[in-house]
């Protein structure tokens, strides 16, 4: 009898706790979040409160990582002060609409548009690594490397050996890599020792180190991929420093790195300085590059768009949407992970209804199960609106990330860098993207997309409508999980 009373009491207590969690969640979870994100978190908490609530507190709360948010805010203010005397852009006569976009990003990030010189897009995987190694071998003062995934393997060895040679001759070499991004690849446990033995000053970004009392949200990533040499040469793109097969046996990643010189490199140096301070508490002062001829054919007008949890106004997403709305004739989107939020989806379909020719380039099969199904859940609406979807053939993973608006027409624009076109890159990842307001990079990225199109399969609406019920169900379930932030 006593046992039955005790069980009933515990059931009553658990029932009260269960309903208390659900009632509080309904009132607090939606605050400051998009409807899709709120709905996903509420669904998790209401269905599985004892699992959903801890996950929400761990990954959904905006009150974690206060130190990082504080430092990022201070860094943004410092960047604004440094650039206070500079105009929004270095060109006297830009179209009003483009000037408006440059002012938008200047207000959100503090970075003005500056000159940059295009030294080439390295679209061959191993040649891109070799080009970065050559730049390191020319270094005289310092080399800053910030790349999401890193692995010292047979393909990347020439790059790390170049870093070692640079350190040996007295060049300051600093390197950042993401802990969660890199830890699952072969050789990670020995990587730190190898870097130290090579004379490289390195740190993990967003590390989980409970022994040192440091905690991070496990869903956050430093997804940036760039390098700075002497404040004069910069590399930025989609490539991780790892062999192109990653951990697979038969797949191969397709990537690029863009080589740049000129004042834009100083913007990259500033981002590295902030991230380095976050992980090491050491202050570095990047040097401004020398002035170069701005009338050269390789001159581009570039603006850095940094983004991440410290940027509460989502400059990355706002700029993508602004460029999509800017397109009048043609829009080319290339992304390995395409999971748009409502605003981007509306912008894309609206472009179609404005008679813009919209092209989306994705892999035939993404390398991540959940993302593959989440992104394909949008194909029906995209195809019905008129988007042409081009699938890069298996076993390749189209990992390049860029967007081109109106190539070959007046006032074209381009965006490229580390950011995918998904909600993770817009809200959870630290990213670096460049906006090209004018210059030959726009045509070169348009040509790169044409090269991809030559080997792609175009997915049609008739073909997509033949998919089975099981595929539709899994796609829609994975779509729900994509909104968790």
Automatic annotation (TrEMBL):
**Keywords associated with the record:** Cell membrane, Lipid biosynthesis, Lipid metabolism, Membrane, Phospholipid biosynthesis, Phospholipid metabolism, Repeat, Transferase, Transmembrane, Transmembrane helix
| Domain of life of the source | Bacteria
The protein's matches in Pfam families, at most eight in alphabetical order, are given as:
PLDc_2, PLDc_N
Q: EC number(s) on record?
A: 2.7.8.-
Native organism:
Corynebacterium phoceense
Q: What is this protein called?
A: Cardiolipin synthase
GO BP: cardiolipin biosynthetic process
Q: Where in the cell is it found?
A: Cell membrane
Output a single Gene Ontology CC term carried by this record: plasma membrane
State which residue ranges cross the membrane: 12-29, 41-64
- Name of the gene this protein is made from: cls
Query: Recorded GO terms, molecular function?
Result: cardiolipin synthase activity
Question: Which membrane topology term applies here?
Answer: Multi-pass membrane protein
Task: Indicate the enzyme's highest-level EC class.
Answer: transferase
Q: Which residues form the PLD phosphodiesterase domain?
A: 218-245, 394-425
Entries under NCBIfam families matching the protein: bac_cardiolipin
């Amino acid at each position: 009898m006593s046992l039955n009373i005790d069980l009933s009491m515990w059931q009553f207590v658990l029932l009260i706790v269960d309903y208390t969690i659900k009632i509080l969640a309904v009132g607090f979870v939606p605050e400051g979040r998009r409807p899709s994100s709120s709905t996903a978190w509420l669904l998790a908490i209401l269905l599985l409160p004892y699992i959903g609530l801890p996950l929400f507190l761990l990954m959904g709360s905006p009150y974690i990582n206060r130190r990082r948010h504080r430092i990022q805010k201070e860094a943004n203010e410092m960047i604004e002060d440094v650039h206070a005397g500079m105009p929004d852009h270095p060109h006297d006569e830009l179209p009003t609409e483009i000037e408006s976009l440059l002012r938008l990003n200047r207000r959100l990030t503090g970075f003005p548009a500056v000159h940059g010189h295009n030294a080439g897009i390295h679209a061959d995987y191993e040649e891109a690594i070799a080009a970065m190694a050559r730049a390191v071998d020319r270094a005289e003062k310092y080399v800053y490397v910030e790349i999401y995934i890193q692995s010292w393997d047979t393909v990347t060895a020439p790059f790390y050996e170049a870093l070692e040679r640079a350190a040996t001759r007295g060049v300051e070499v600093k390197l950042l890599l993401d802990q969660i991004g890199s830890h699952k690849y072969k050789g990670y446990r020995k990587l730190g020792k190898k870097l130290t033995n090579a004379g490289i000053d390195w740190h993990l970004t967003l590390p989980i180190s409970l022994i040192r009392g440091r905690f991070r949200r496990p869903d956050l990533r430093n997804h940036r991929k760039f390098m700075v040499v002497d404040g004069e040469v910069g590399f930025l793109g989609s490539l991780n420093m790892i062999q192109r097969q990653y951990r697979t046996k038969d797949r191969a990643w397709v990537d690029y790195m863009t080589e740049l010189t000129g004042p834009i490199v100083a913007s990259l140096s500033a981002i590295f300085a902030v991230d380095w301070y976050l992980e090491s508490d050491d202050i570095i002062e990047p040097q401004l590059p020398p002035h170069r001829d701005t009338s050269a054919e390789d001159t581009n007008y570039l603006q850095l768009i940094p983004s991440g949890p410290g940027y509460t106004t989502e400059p990355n997403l706002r700029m993508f949407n602004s460029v999509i709305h800017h397109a009048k004739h043609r829009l080319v989107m290339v992304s390995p992970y395409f999971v748009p939020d409502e605003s981007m989806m509306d912008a894309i379909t609206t472009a179609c209804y404005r008679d813009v020719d919209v092209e989306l380039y994705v892999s035939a099969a993404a390398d991540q199960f959940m993302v593959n199904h989440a992104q394909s859940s949008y194909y029906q609406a995209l195809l019905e609106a008129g988007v042409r979807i081009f699938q890069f053939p298996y076993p390749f993973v189209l990992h390049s990330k860029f967007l081109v608006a109106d190539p070959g027409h007046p006032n074209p624009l381009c965006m490229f860098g580390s950011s995918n076109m998904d909600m993770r890159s817009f809200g959870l990842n630290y990213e670096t993207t460049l906006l090209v307001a004018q210059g030959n990079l726009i045509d070169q990225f348009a040509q790169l997309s044409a090269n991809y199109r030559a080997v792609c399969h175009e997915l049609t609406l008739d073909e997509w409508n033949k998919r089975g019920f099981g595929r539709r169900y899994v796609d829609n379930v994975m779509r729900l999980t994509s909104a968790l932030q």
